[in-house]
Write a structure and sequence with these properties.
- Helix 1 packs across helix 8, helix 3 packs parallel to helix 4 and helix 4 packs parallel to helix 5.
- Helices cover 48% and strands 14% of the residues.
- Strands 3-2-1-4-5-6-7 form a 7-stranded parallel sheet, with helices on both faces.
- The termini are far apart.
- With 266 residues, it is an alpha/beta fold.
- The chain has a single domain, classed as 3-Layer(aba) Sandwich (Rossmann fold), CATH 3.40.50.720.
- The radius of gyration is 20 Å and the shape is globular.
- The chain contains 10 helices and 7 strands.
């Protein structure tokens, strides 16, 4: 993709899962990354593996950490061209979620990305840079037993649109990517297999499987590249048709209805 080589990106949540896939894809495109994460072991290992990368310990709920992250990026690389807000807290007990669950979820998933964008804004304005927020299909539909996470992702979708309007004068583009079910580090830690996840995801996604992390990363790189220079304030669903399909699913519902009539006359 055009215009990525030589740029500098901050990726929150870049130590693992989708964030790490984004960092890796950036490295392959010639982008130097700052990995902002609370997982020092995984983040440090990834930075060492890639070489032209820097790990910075950062909690999105801490303004001090975010300011230090931006300062470290500028001190090391001299500029910031891209910000990807990929970090997320999944603290969701549905209707049993406590006030602290809500506070922490929004601190990390909404307020943190906003504060990091504000901290990086002067440097992004200098490079006419781009911001990509990682949303979710969870922002679009009701999901039984899930309250805090979908609500926070709906909020990040609205924040993306508003930020795009307010940052346009600085020449900063702001977009979001909303993944469908994606094979993740969290799923691995739960002891799930890829085959099991794909089997459950299949009815909800037109390709009949969950997404690979690299597929989400590819969409992020596109939105950060010069190939997306006229795109701002948009959400790119990388969801295998989840949001398009609707509740009737893949099998033709009308044909099933006609079949009921036919069966009733036999």
């Amino acid at each position: 993709m055009r215009g990525l080589d030589g740029k500098v990106a901050i990726i929150s949540g870049g130590a693992s899962s989708i964030g790490a896939a984004i960092v890796t894809a950036f490295a392959q495109a010639g982008v130097r990354s700052v990995i902002a994460d609370i997982d020092a072991e995984a983040g440090g290992a990834l930075a060492a593996q890639l070489g032209e990368a820097l790990f910075v310990s950062a909690d999105l709920a801490s303004d001090t950490d975010l300011a230090a992250c931006v300062a470290a990026a500028v001190a090391r690389f001299g500029r910031i061209d891209v910000l990807v807000n990929a970090a997320a807290a999944y603290i969701d007990h549905g209707a049993a979620s406590s006030r602290e669950d809500w506070r922490r979820s929004f601190d990390v998933n909404v307020t943190g990305p906003a504060m990091l964008a504000l901290a990086a804004r002067p440097y992004l304005a200098a490079t006419k840079g781009a911001i990509v927020n990682i949303g979710s299909i969870s922002a679009l539909v009701a999901q039984a037993g899930r309250w805090t996470y979908p609500a926070s992702k709906a909020a990040i979708a609205q924040l993306t649109r508003t930020m795009a309007v307010d940052f346009a004068g600085d020449g900063i583009r702001v977009n979001s990517v909303s993944p469908g079910w994606t094979w993740s580090t969290g799923m691995e830690k739960l002891g799930l297999t890829r085959a099991a996840v794909d089997s459950v995801a299949a009815p909800y996604h037109l390709p009949g499987r969950a997404a690979d992390r690299s597929e989400i990363a590819g969409a992020v790189l596109f939105l950060c590249s010069d190939d997306a220079s006229f795109i701002s304030g948009a959400d790119l669903p990388v969801d295998g048709g989840y949001s398009a399909m609707g509740p009737e699913g893949r099998p033709p519902a009308f044909e099933r209805l006609i079949a009921q009539i036919t069966e009733g006359t036999e």
